[in-house]
Amino acid sequence: MLGIFPWFVLCLRFSLVLALGGLFLCWVLSIPNQRQLSLINRNMVVFYGSQTGTAEEFCGRLAKDAQRYGMSGMSADLEENDMSELPRLVEIDNSLAVFCMATYGEGDPTDNAQDFYDWMQETDEELNRVNFAVFGLGNKTYEHFNAMGKYTDKRLEELGGRRIYDLGMGDDDGNLEEDFVSWKEQFWPAVCEHFGVEATGDDTSIRQYELVFPTDINMNKVYTGEMGRLKSFETQKPPFDAKNPYLATVAVNRQLNQAGDRHLMHLELDISGSQIRYDSGDHVAVYPMNDVSIVNRIGQILDADLDTVISLNNLDEESNKKHPFPCPTTYRTALTHYLDITNPPRTNVLFELAQYATDPKDQDILRKMASASPEGKGLYQSWVLDAQRNILAVLEDMPSLHPAIDHLCELLPRLQARYYSIASSGKVYSNMVSICAVVVEFQTSTGRSFKGVATNWLKNKVVVTDNGHKATVPMYVRKSQFRLPFKASNPVVMIGLGTGIAPFMGFLQERGWMKEQGKDVGETILYFGCRHRNQDFMYQQELEEFEKVGVLTQLNVAFSRDQEEKVYVQHLLKKNNEHLWKLIHTDNAHIYICGDARNMARDVQNAFYDIAEEVGGLTHTQAVVYIKKLMTKGRYAQDVWS
Ligand code: NAP
């Protein structure tokens, strides 16, 4: 059993810190609400840099595992802790700092890891051999795969930290869950060896939260879907952000395509009076609601009264996270607003649920899928991931599985906001944020219909409901680096695929507005790729109008499926190679790419290498360096999603 940091040392340290002028200054200067690391009464702190909640979830799992190894673990938000105190963790006996670092966008830190990243870059503090390990969360389809995980791992070592176990690199394009489980399988033995501890007991289920039924319920104190402050949807107060979204009314919701079996949509969210400002290229985050029929069905299978008011309270009183989601609330609100019930559950959820299966065969299957054995991993891949079984499908297909609803609510991950590239210009439409999206719906191999949470919820938003109410959407704006050139006279080349046209609608509106202001606006070229002219040529009228009035100097469209051979944007790029090379090499053009990250972004980049080689006379290596340089200068920007 490892020793934990004794309280008397804490008190001693507190007075020591007060006595030391310099340290006292740093104490006073630290950002309010940030916890002093030296006050953490744990020997394993798992920090997360998380954007969509997965890194946070993994941290929680590692911290929970710690108990099985006789360690006291705690998961911690990088933003809520004073990370400049990291070197002081060594003062805690046998301490270990673990980092689950997600990489966001083009190799960037997540919002909550930004300050820590800046600190790592600037500091020359000696880490005093602080024990550390890093697990990175990334996606191989992006150029800067796991940049944050790699940087943190390297930098902590440079600063004098002691790596306890090798960097883990999760790939969301493959199987992130499997990567994490495999890393964890090796990580714990390394920890045991380093600290001379052993796994204690077996893999028993440990609850993190206790279920409490509040007495004297005052419904005014019960959360009904707010992200932070209670009643924040009734009394809206700026500034609006992730914890305080703005309830925008839906002013327009129209289908963009007349034909085809997909539903492409354009929405306009009214933000007047919100003080929200945005630039072309920014993203809008939307908090969706889960499908009511799935929520009801879960309640029915679990024989639960969904309107029961509950609170799940963290048994670890020192944790910053008091509840898994805003509490008190009802099961219905939790399942509708706060929990992800659409994506396939992770292996830890299956493991914990196994205890509730009355059929030993079901128990075995669930435990096997949660194990690191090749057979278990294969079964999880095929039965859960490939079949896109969500929690409801798991419950339906394992009739002996009957978990306690409060435990299920504790285990399911948080429902995350969805990000869309804003399809309008804040300069032209300061009171409106537009979204362009395709409704996600397909048949799974079990014959169920998989419906994307946010797009289906948005699709059903009617502008004015039968009772005269306006439909609303909780949203906030997230700044991006995807920006028009500072000088309007610089040419721009925009490459948009499918709904990846979105940010370019904003760019075009803004270039048109600048033209109207009498500014010298450079060439504005669009390459748009979609499936069929008569089905997916989104904003055709608007684009042709932009071309007619000269805002768009060239409109190139690749209809991939209108002929036998595929025609893609890169084929059109290559046809215009000489002109493009002149724009890039001589005229300082900025290139923008938006759409699917998996293949398109790489293929388009290859097309630019080819142009640099064929017209610019560069070798392949020189071409790669050339495009890299453009990226560094902000002249080759990508807004790609996978
Ligand atoms: P889509 O209709 O599936 O695809 C658009 C076009 O791209 C099709 O003609 C497709 O051709 C073509 N394409 C496929 N592979 C390609 C490749 N390697 N190189 C060049 N072209 C290729 O697109 P979508 O359904 O609208 O989705 C586009 C992507 O943009 C999605 O991943 C979406 O998440 C993302 N996105 C959305 C937003 C937003 O705000 N809504 C913003 C940014 C990005 P074929 O299918 O015929 O092969």
TrEMBL record:
A GO CC annotation given for this chain: cytosol
Keywords: Endoplasmic reticulum, FAD, Flavoprotein, FMN, Membrane, NADP, Oxidoreductase, Transmembrane, Transmembrane helix
Binding site for FAD: 418-421, 436-438, 452-455, 641
Residues holding NADP(+): 262, 499, 560-561, 566-570, 603
Subcellular location: Endoplasmic reticulum membrane
Keyword Transmembrane helix among UniProt keywords: yes
Entries under Pfam families matching the protein: FAD_binding_1 (PF00667), Flavodoxin_1 (PF00258), NAD_binding_1 (PF00175)
UniProt-listed Gene3D superfamilies: 3.40.50.360, NADPH-cytochrome p450 Reductase, Chain A, domain 3, Nucleotide-binding domain of ferredoxin-NADP reductase (FNR) module, Translation factors
Main location: endoplasmic reticulum
Enzyme Commission code: 1.6.2.4
UniProt GO MF annotations: flavin adenine dinucleotide binding; FMN binding; NADP binding; NADPH-hemoprotein reductase activity
Protein name from the UniProt record: NADPH--cytochrome P450 reductase
